[in-house]
Fold each of these.
Amino acid sequence: MAAVRAASAELGFAEAAPAWRLRSEQFPSKLYAPLPGRADAFHRGLFLFCCREPPCCAGLRVFRNQLPRKNDFYPYEPPSEDPPLEAGASVCLQLKSGAHLCRVCGCLGPKTCSRCHKAYYCSREHQTLDWRLGHKQACTQSGNLDNTVPDHSFLFPEFEIVIETEDEITPEDVEKEDESEVIGSMGEVPEEELDSMAKHESREDKIFQKFKTKIAQEPEQILRYGRGIAPLWVSGENIPQEQDVPDCPCGAKRIFEFQVMPQLLNYLKADSLGRSVDWGVLAVFTCAESCRLGAGYTEEFVWKQEIADVP
């Protein structure tokens, strides 16, 4: 299992009309997860989207695509590593060739401003938003209008992703954690009551305790990756059974690949209770065979688990 935490500058979770994208090759559009030994999956990406608004939170979508090393889209050799953008620098969403991109969300922008013909948009709504927040004044001005993107407070902030191999938790670690909690409460609760509580410890308590003990090693981790292993659940409620995870259209079973942790909400500035997207765990399941797609995309499966009220 790899524990992934945010550091600074390029984690990216860009909201796309209105959704967010997770990328990890430079991280902000996709989780880059190639499969060793698979020539057809040298480039393999997982894209996770969800609506930012609470009424639409059920609209979680995850897509996979994969390509061999020699393909029509990426060079055979990796590009040079350029230094990151300076703090506060504008993001360039205008491609030098090919399709035009929306100035607000970065999606395909087939619509254009009828006055300057330099600003492109995916929809009338995003054109209206950009007009109200600055394009009205800049429309007729010359300059790099087509290369810079104003801050609409629409995209999620971007950070760098740091990936580290997770250390195994020993039974001694769990025992020490349990002991510290008991000691901390001994002065307030009678010993007889503590014994009674220990005997009646629920499955929910044990699952939540395991979650806390695991993430204590990396409290700020935002993502956990481990293809084919068991996810780390935050609650004993709403854990999917085998029949709850649909098979891939190719006929193969889907297996767990990675999970998004609740700590990410703080980085995305989307942790306003009742007013923004919320989750306990987002668990992503992908085709066990990682079936061949050509140059296309296929939808995979994501399971959302809320944080239960644990006494």
Note: Residues 124-138 form the longest helix (15 residues).
Amino acid sequence: MEEVLERQKRERRTRMRRRAASKRAQRELDEQLGVAVALLEEENQSRRGSREGRASNVDRHRHSRGIVCGVPSSGRSSPRERKRKGATSMKAVVITTPGGPEVLQLHEVEDPELKDNEVLIKVEATALNRADILQRKGMYPPPPGSSPYLGLECSGTIEAVGKQVSRWQVGDKVCALLSGGGYAEKVAVPAGQVLLAPPGVSLQDAASFPEVSCTVWSTVFMMSRLSAGETFLVHGGSSGIGTFAIQMAKYWGAKVFVTAGSEEKLAFCKNLGADVCINYKTEDFVARVKEETGGKGVDVILDIIGAEYFRRNLDSLSFDGRLFVIGTMGGAVTEIDLRVVLSKRLTIQAAGLRYRSPENKAAIVREVENNVWPAIVAGKVKPVVYKYFPLSEAAEAHLLMESSKHIGKILLLP
């Protein structure tokens, strides 16, 4: 009887934890939807004002305080208030209006305000990510309270530390996972999202690691539990995510499959350690996966394509296989045959990094520090940088990323 009561208590506690987690997830989703709705409303108001021809200088000034560079403001002090306080300035790439690469311009802006739990980094380099393109187009607003500028990762030197920061000191060479703000000369970031720049890697190239390492480790290893001896397929093997995932999965002892769109890219993936390289333009990756695994399929798939590959991904998975979706380059809406999922006991997950809480990001960063950084220090995982651009040529860097001609990461240097 006591065992039954204890089991019931455990079950109640489990249900309570699940309900609490569900409520937290719903709150985060509501915040994201609220930001998107606010952005749409601002755009609609702007269009109405243009049609009526009544946008006065006062209206434009008021509008500029709510929207900075085409995205919601960070909620920090207004420009006029900070000018009174003697705020200093820096250069940053701003989105003058949502649109193509040409809307990116280098402007003089105010330095970031440093919160008590943050460090101020003088940026050595920042890296491009696909999310930057979406934000530039007005489709991916930054989280509330974040920098309005582009850039989800950076490397550099700490210039100042907040009152509550104890681990980091002025002068430390670091890299960091950001919610925004990397396309600038300085950025403020929560101390928990900072990593010591790995020895043996230049400070510039260290900017290529935070976003890919946190994404791959949290999805492939923490959540999908890829283990030594298992098989792993990563789509877009020549991308920044792909080149890192290949190296890390091989370091972990997995057999790696990749897809890419040219023989040059496949050869590069092969040189990084990929075992099976598939040209998605000339081959059916499902058939090739089945052939290479004796009809079994792979254990884990990391996918940036989304709807276009969804059904084929399910066909490519083994029993107890795990699919993790981190992008929707091939569409966001699809149908699912639950019989396939049920019969093969599949797990389907999806997640991003940017809208996670600072506490969750800090937990991932510490996991990366403990599990990924040793591989980098040992030389088993190396930065893959395709090209460097000055910050003033951010538009050209975006053009290159959108062409998909690059392999690995593209960096911007202030």
Note: The CA atoms of residues 12 and 394 lie 53 Å apart.
Amino acid sequence: MALLKHLLLSFTIIIISFVACYSTLQEDPPSSIIYIDHSPSIDDGRTFKNLIKQSTNVLSLNRFDKRSSLKKLSVNDYGAKGNGDADDTEAFKKAWDVVCSSGEAILVVPQANYLLKPIRFSGPCEPNVEVQISGTLEASDDPSDYEDDRRHWLVFDNVKKLFVYGGGTIDGNGKIWWKNSCKRNKKRPCKDAPTALTFYNCEDLTVENLSIENAQQIHVSFQDSVNIKVSGLTVTAPEDSPNTDGIHVTNTQNIQISSSVIGTGDDCISIVHGSKDVEATDITCGPGHGISIGSLGSGKSKEFVSGIRVNRAKIFGTKNGVRIKTWQLSRKSAIQIKNVLYQNITGTSASDIAVKFDCSDKFPCEEIVLQNIDLECEGGDDAEAMCNNVELSYLGNVRPRCNSKKRKAFTTITSIWKYFSWYI
């Protein structure tokens, strides 16, 4: 299977309407914007990691005065061994309970290796709670430890004004889960695997300067939360690891993701139903499946995504570039997408078709604008554009362009921007 070789992105995508439709559109959702501006030429993630360290140092200095007045409680003081063999779950629970109930405190994870079973850090908490992870948190690889909740490992639940940071590593230890995935072994049933790190129902959350690796499934998920700042994350897993999305955003509003390097076996960033005002800036993505909105519309559900902005991104070695994925369930129910701007995109494609719009014939894509697009095949030959049921206009220099011939839509994916090797 061909791969995306190199993409230096500078583009804007504006989605004004993005809604699941049933016979007729019943209401107009709020506007949605994806914007990617000019990205510097970066051959690998090292330059971005240096930028991450610099920006993190500045942020840390800004918070120094506040942190100096907070009391520190180490998990070691509550019985954690940190030897990589002993189960430190109960010690972490005890330390969290004290920090959460007292407030004005920092839960400290020193530089050691802590083995943890599934754990939920629940709120509400007293104000000014921080978690400083300097060591490594390693997940239990025994599936029986996840019998009560097969979908989560570390969860922060219902906490306001939480700050999680520290330069440490969260290791999902996912090999046993990947080995038993139906995507690797077709003879096995498809089952959920845990998300390594979940922030659920959180408000005014800051997460920065952490490495998350080898997740059992999704690496980091922000769910049902509001006012989130994420920066300086390094998210990694093998290219063939199944369903290991880097950052997953669902039903979350006002989230900023910046200066992060993501390379996994699935989407670098995935944005799904209910997400609004999502901004991703200075993202290095690859390997993986690119940056995705959706899938949307499964089970005939009405779903909205709006206010998405991607600003400066380098995408390389991925199966997809940037895409919008939807389910088209029948000729009477479909997702409609309209008022979308793709702007300032350059790169090379490992497949002949570099641009693909495959929209519903009943609810076609409308008011799609391409501006300043320059995509060619890997060897320098002209790339092609494939367009079904889409209303297009062009600004500036755009190549490739769709031809005027209409072809019948034939997939369940609608309005897809296809870069490099775009396979669904």
Note: The CA atoms of residues 20 and 335 lie 4 Å apart.
Amino acid sequence: MAPPLPSPSMAPPGLIHSAPGPPDTCALLQLPAAAAASMSGPAAETPSAIQICRIMRPDDANVAGNVHGGTILKMIEEAGAIISTRHCNSQNGERCVAALARVERTDFLSPMCIGEVAHVSAEITYTSKHSVEVQVHVTSENILTGTKKLTNKATLWYVPLSLKNVDKVLEVPPVVYSRQEQEEEGRKRYEAQKLERMETKWRNGDIVQPILNPEPNTVGYSQSSLIHLVGPSDCTLHGFVHGGVTMKLMDEVAGIVAARHCKTNIVTASVDAINFHDKIRKGYVITISGRMTFTSNKSMEIEVLVDADPVVDDSQKRYRAASAFFTYVSLSQEGKSLPVPQLVPETEDEKKRFEEGKGRYLQMKAKRQGQAEPQP
């Protein structure tokens, strides 16, 4: 194992406290030996990978003991924000903070439970002129048996915002690739996500309207909204919301929608690409709305929209800040997959969204089947 980053505090070697608390809430940062050898200033060699570890507690999970998908997403974003901000400040120049712009589709491969330790490993895999790609792997560890399982893989994109003016995007220092193919593959991923972000923003004018006296299994019956006042604890030191905080709230709303629809224990199965269209500032009121769009025999797709309202700033209107599709599955008390009540779309818009959701479902099903086939 590579030696850890020397501790700048009184903590034991290898442990850096992210907040006051017991040792099992610490972030363990493991760096390559070459990176840890010299960290005297911004121009020093910057590590390209870190690992954060934390034990899962009861308030991280649902009543069945399964850790909330939003808790995992928040940890994934924290690791990505640390490594990308470090990289963007690795050269002398204007100081900046990395802001989350997009999370590619992520699948929850295995459930995580209370008492297990989450190991979140993040690595920078590509940089463009104004963005950083971070790939993250999450592993759960049963500390009683030593068993480890891969639970998540995610790809995140960050942009560096100037500390002097958070509306100004700075240039990103280039990353060094071990082979030329890595840069070419990264460029293809960058162009694909850029196009998808633009397409998502164009179709994001929709809003979730309340429905009076909805019938069971309809969209209106399970749709839910959460209104949240953005406080200092939700934000970076520079006054805008952590992407992980937003993702956690989105997962909570999606979970409520799923639970209302099937009335059983539910868990996050996957999250389609999450696009962050604009920053959310401290003091804003955000409305997170979720509605069912599609059901298969054993899964539910839920669209989640995040709207930000400046409230006290008359110069700016309410705007769409983020959007994504979450997929949930229904579980029995024994953890077995249960059939999902079929959604009954009523309006033309609901029928259209149902067909679009069906298309996404079939596309991902075909992709998984293709990956499962043995290679020649």
Note: The first strand starts at residue 15 and ends at 16.
